[in-house]
Write a structure and sequence with these properties.
Blueprint: H1 5-50, H2 60-106, H3 111-123, H4 126-136, H5 140-164, H6 168-176, H7 181-216, H8 224-233, H9 237-265, H10 267-277
Length: about 280
């Protein structure tokens, strides 16, 4: 039975205020988040400047001044080394994870073995395997392997879940035209799994950076991790905080870059998310 004109109008009247409330609520959350950040920074500045909690907490103003003082002469020596190791580990670790996930879908008998390897890579503490890798490899190779180990499990699970959520009708259509498992994987499953893969890659960015820095702790002479160890041993509190903030900024920047790629590469997923929010 069709709805009458007044009923439709009433629904429209209720929908419009809800949209306005939703918009106002979003703005309110933004303002609330900004106010919360300012309060945290102000409290941090007071605690660091007064030394109430000890000398280990540097004030934000001092940290910024330290970053300016160190400048490009300091960070140009260490930053490229860390970025190179993290990028190499991010690439090879994620490539191995996606390849293993595709192997699981095409050869289901290998699923248990692959998942056991992935779980082992996630359960072993990075700080425990770093000395072993440092004894076997030299320099940046250790950091790159640590980065690869850090990202493997997340991307493996995300890719497998994405591949399994492919449209069965599309899969049957490819099979009806004579396609095998490989063609179904390439034509259907990878396409449907792309949003999940890119989401896993976003999570893998900070994980790769963390693995790289832990790897640089193991006697490496250059890199942000090595510089962080030297700063801690020398009790250079401001520089230690500065390096930490630079690492955090790198992780956030990499996350945002992959998020931008996600919006470009999977526009249908972004559209679905916006509809869910509304």
């Amino acid at each position: 039975m069709s709805e009458s004109g007044p009923e439709v109008a009433a629904k429209g009247d209720h929908a419009e205020p809800s949209r306005m409330l939703g918009s106002g609520g979003t703005k309110g959350r933004k303002y609330l988040g900004a106010a919360g950040s300012l309060i945290v920074l102000a409290a941090w500045q007071v605690i660091g400047a007064t030394g109430v909690l000890g000398p280990a907490i540097a004030a934000p103003v001092d940290i910024v001044q330290g970053l300016i003082t160190d400048g490009t002469n300091f960070y140009s020596l260490h930053l490229p080394v860390t970025l190179a190791s993290a990028a190499a580990g991010f690439f090879w670790g994620n490539l191995a994870a996606i390849g293993c996930a595709a192997l699981v879908l095409t050869v289901p008998a290998l699923e248990k073995l692959v998942l056991q390897i992935g779980i082992a890579s996630a359960c072993i503490p990075l700080i425990a395997i770093a000395p072993i890798l440092a004894a076997c490899f030299n320099g940046q190779v250790t950091s790159a392997i640590m980065a690869a180990v850090s990202v493997f499990f997340t991307t493996l699970v995300g890719t497998i879940n994405g591949l399994r959520h492919a449209d069965p009708v599309s899969e049957d259509l490819v099979r009806a035209y004579g396609g095998g498992r490989y063609l179904v994987l390439r034509k259907v499953q990878l396409l449907y799994a792309l949003p999940d893969i890119v989401t896993a890659l976003k999570i893998a960015v900070p994980a790769a950076l963390l693995g790289t820095i832990i790897g640089e702790f193991m006697g490496q002479e250059t890199g942000l991790g090595a510089a962080l160890v030297v700063a801690q041993q020398s009790s250079e509190v401001v520089r230690t905080w500065g390096i930490t903030l630079v690492c955090s900024a790198l992780a956030a920047g990499g996350f945002l870059i992959v998020a931008a790629v996600q919006r470009f590469a999977t526009p249908w997923a972004a559209g679905t998310e916006s509809e869910v929010r509304v």
